[in-house]
Specification:
- By secondary structure, the protein is mostly helical.
- The chain has a domain of 56 residues.
- Helix 1 packs antiparallel against helix 2.
- The longest helix is centred in the first third of the chain and has 47 residues.
- It is flat and about 75 Å long.
Length: 107
Protein backbone atom coordinates (compact mmCIF):
# COMPACT_ATOMS: atom_id res chain seq x y z
CA UNK A 1 0.00 0.00 0.00
CA UNK A 2 2.83 2.41 0.82
CA UNK A 3 4.52 1.62 -2.47
CA UNK A 4 1.41 2.44 -4.51
CA UNK A 5 1.02 5.73 -2.65
CA UNK A 6 4.65 6.68 -3.35
CA UNK A 7 4.23 5.82 -7.04
CA UNK A 8 1.00 7.81 -7.19
CA UNK A 9 2.58 10.88 -5.60
CA UNK A 10 5.86 10.82 -7.58
CA UNK A 11 5.48 9.10 -10.94
CA UNK A 12 2.10 10.63 -11.81
CA UNK A 13 3.18 14.25 -11.35
CA UNK A 14 6.47 13.57 -13.15
CA UNK A 15 4.57 12.24 -16.18
CA UNK A 16 2.45 15.38 -16.20
CA UNK A 17 5.57 17.52 -15.93
CA UNK A 18 7.15 15.57 -18.78
CA UNK A 19 4.20 16.35 -21.06
CA UNK A 20 4.33 20.00 -20.06
CA UNK A 21 8.05 20.20 -20.86
CA UNK A 22 7.57 18.31 -24.13
CA UNK A 23 4.92 20.73 -25.37
CA UNK A 24 7.10 23.66 -24.29
CA UNK A 25 10.08 22.35 -26.23
CA UNK A 26 7.97 21.66 -29.31
CA UNK A 27 6.53 25.18 -29.12
CA UNK A 28 9.95 26.77 -28.63
CA UNK A 29 11.37 24.92 -31.63
CA UNK A 30 8.38 25.94 -33.76
CA UNK A 31 8.59 29.61 -32.80
CA UNK A 32 12.37 29.62 -33.29
CA UNK A 33 12.09 28.13 -36.77
CA UNK A 34 9.36 30.60 -37.69
CA UNK A 35 11.41 33.59 -36.56
CA UNK A 36 14.57 32.42 -38.34
CA UNK A 37 12.69 31.71 -41.58
CA UNK A 38 10.97 35.08 -41.28
CA UNK A 39 14.33 36.84 -41.00
CA UNK A 40 15.68 34.88 -43.97
CA UNK A 41 12.58 35.83 -45.92
CA UNK A 42 13.09 39.52 -45.17
CA UNK A 43 16.71 39.35 -46.30
CA UNK A 44 15.87 37.37 -49.42
CA UNK A 45 13.00 39.64 -50.49
CA UNK A 46 15.14 42.74 -50.10
CA UNK A 47 18.00 41.17 -52.04
CA UNK A 48 15.97 39.67 -54.88
CA UNK A 49 13.05 42.01 -55.40
CA UNK A 50 14.72 45.41 -55.09
CA UNK A 51 17.48 47.06 -57.08
CA UNK A 52 18.14 49.71 -54.45
CA UNK A 53 20.57 47.69 -52.37
CA UNK A 54 23.42 46.97 -54.79
CA UNK A 55 27.13 47.75 -54.46
CA UNK A 56 27.66 50.05 -51.45
CA UNK A 57 24.22 49.39 -49.96
CA UNK A 58 24.37 45.58 -50.01
CA UNK A 59 24.48 45.46 -46.20
CA UNK A 60 20.98 46.94 -45.79
CA UNK A 61 19.03 43.66 -46.29
CA UNK A 62 21.15 42.02 -43.58
CA UNK A 63 20.56 44.92 -41.20
CA UNK A 64 16.82 44.65 -41.92
CA UNK A 65 16.97 40.93 -41.11
CA UNK A 66 18.75 41.70 -37.83
CA UNK A 67 16.13 44.34 -36.98
CA UNK A 68 13.41 41.75 -37.70
CA UNK A 69 15.08 39.34 -35.28
CA UNK A 70 15.39 42.02 -32.58
CA UNK A 71 11.72 42.94 -32.95
CA UNK A 72 10.72 39.29 -32.71
CA UNK A 73 12.83 38.87 -29.57
CA UNK A 74 11.30 41.99 -28.01
CA UNK A 75 7.77 40.77 -28.76
CA UNK A 76 8.49 37.32 -27.33
CA UNK A 77 9.99 38.77 -24.15
CA UNK A 78 6.98 41.05 -23.78
CA UNK A 79 4.65 38.07 -24.16
CA UNK A 80 6.54 36.08 -21.52
CA UNK A 81 6.57 38.81 -18.83
CA UNK A 82 3.73 38.89 -16.34
CA UNK A 83 1.04 41.49 -16.95
CA UNK A 84 1.60 43.23 -13.60
CA UNK A 85 4.90 44.44 -12.22
CA UNK A 86 4.31 42.50 -9.03
CA UNK A 87 2.59 39.18 -9.36
CA UNK A 88 0.69 39.36 -6.08
CA UNK A 89 -3.07 39.65 -5.97
CA UNK A 90 -4.38 43.18 -6.42
CA UNK A 91 -5.77 44.97 -3.40
CA UNK A 92 -9.52 45.48 -3.23
CA UNK A 93 -10.70 48.94 -4.21
CA UNK A 94 -11.00 51.48 -1.42
CA UNK A 95 -14.52 52.12 -0.14
CA UNK A 96 -16.02 55.54 -0.52
CA UNK A 97 -16.63 57.73 2.52
CA UNK A 98 -20.43 57.69 2.11
CA UNK A 99 -20.44 53.85 2.19
CA UNK A 100 -18.51 53.92 5.45
CA UNK A 101 -20.97 56.42 6.95
CA UNK A 102 -23.98 54.28 5.91
CA UNK A 103 -22.51 51.22 7.64
CA UNK A 104 -21.85 53.23 10.81
CA UNK A 105 -25.51 54.32 10.93
CA UNK A 106 -26.72 50.70 10.69
CA UNK A 107 -24.63 49.48 13.60
Amino acid sequence: MLRSYIVQETVGPLRGLGRYVLFGVIGAVGVSLGVVFGALGVVRVLQAETDLFNANWSFVPHVAGAVFLLLAIALLIRAIRPKHADATAPEPPARRADENAAEDDDG
